[in-house]
Design brief:
- By secondary structure, this protein is an alpha/beta fold.
- The chain has a single domain, classed as Rossmann fold, CATH 3.40.50.
- It has twelve helices and eight strands.
- It has an eight-stranded mixed β-sheet with strand order 1-2-4-3-5-6-7-8, sandwiched between helices.
- Strand 7, helix 10 and strand 8 form a beta-alpha-beta unit.
- It is globular, with a radius of gyration of 18 Å.
- The two termini are about 30 Å apart.
Length: about 280
């Protein structure tokens, strides 16, 4: 994938553009411990049907961290808006996974005139609703203990893809249903992640609550959730579908928190059907 970069508030933000610019526009926003490559397999199935923009959030993938600003959902949304203005990319549907779904909700609430439809996958929206047994350990134990942090960083820097994937086979059965189909994407997330940044973002997102604002969201919304998602509760997704004026909920029986890795072709069809409806 060929990436471009644009300077937003003195930080270089990476993105790629694919598809047919005469077709309906889609903007993809990835989640925590991720990058724009999360959506690549699905994008390959729809590249002839849409004008596609996929971005690395500040501090993720090939994008630089923000300078002098907090890395939180609201500032991510503002950076996305500035990127869209720079590229003259408006009148699009938003697709966000996990943290990217939170950013997509925030963006739509702040800049409704930019958005036609909204798709959120594995997205928490209520205060303290995120289930995070592994994330708790990773961020709050490793990051807070300098010696352990240095050991973990050394392991991260030196581990091979083969060893990493063998180590995570048992873990993946519980957290990432189709891990073996991810084609190394999770490994590359792991190799490139900035632990300090992850901790900063996590501490700000886990207490975020859209309860008071969510009813202002009037755009047609598709909510996607894997039944085996260990991070987001099915009940919370149902509540979101019930609160929104125009929303549909699609649950994947064997889906995990990484649906775009689990079912890229199936999700491509679902996106086409929803966004062209």
């Amino acid at each position: 994938m060929e990436y471009n970069k644009v300077l937003i508030d003195n930080s270089k933000i990476a993105y790629f553009r694919r598809g047919d610019r005469r077709k309906p526009k889609i903007l993809f926003i990835h989640g925590l411990l991720s990058s724009s490559s999360y959506f690549n397999s699905t994008i390959n199935f729809i590249k002839d049907d849409f004008d596609i923009l996929s971005v690395d959030l500040p501090g993720y993938g090939l994008s630089e961290k923000m300078k002098g600003k907090k890395h939180n959902v609201k500032n991510f949304a503002i950076y996305i808006r500035k990127l869209c203005d720079e590229l003259r990319f408006k009148g699009f549907s938003l697709v966000g996974g996990s943290l990217g779904g939170m950013v997509s909700i925030q963006f739509t609430l702040m800049f409704q005139q930019y958005v036609k439809k909204l798709v959120v996958q594995g997205t928490p929206w209520l205060k303290d609703s995120i289930r995070h047994p592994f994330i708790d350990y990773l961020y709050f134990y490793i990051v807070r203990h300098k010696k352990v942090f240095n050991m973990f960083k050394k392991f991260r820097d030196n581990v091979t893809r083969e060893n990493f994937e063998n180590m995570l086979k048992n873990f993946s059965r519980n957290y990432y249903y189709n891990y073996n189909k991810s084609d190394g994407v999770i490994y590359y997330f792991f190799k490139s992640m900035n632990l300090g940044l992850q901790k900063e973002v996590w501490e700000r997102m886990e207490h975020l609550d859209f309860t008071k604002e969510i009813k202002k969201l009037k755009k047609p919304t598709l909510i996607l959730l894997g039944k085996k998602d260990t991070h987001v509760k099915l009940g919370d997704a149902k509540k979101l579908a019930g609160v929104l004026e125009d929303a549909k909920l699609k649950v994947f029986k064997n889906g995990s928190h990484t649906l775009f890795l689990d079912y890229p072709e199936k999700l491509a069809k679902i996106l086409k059907d929803f966004l062209y409806d």
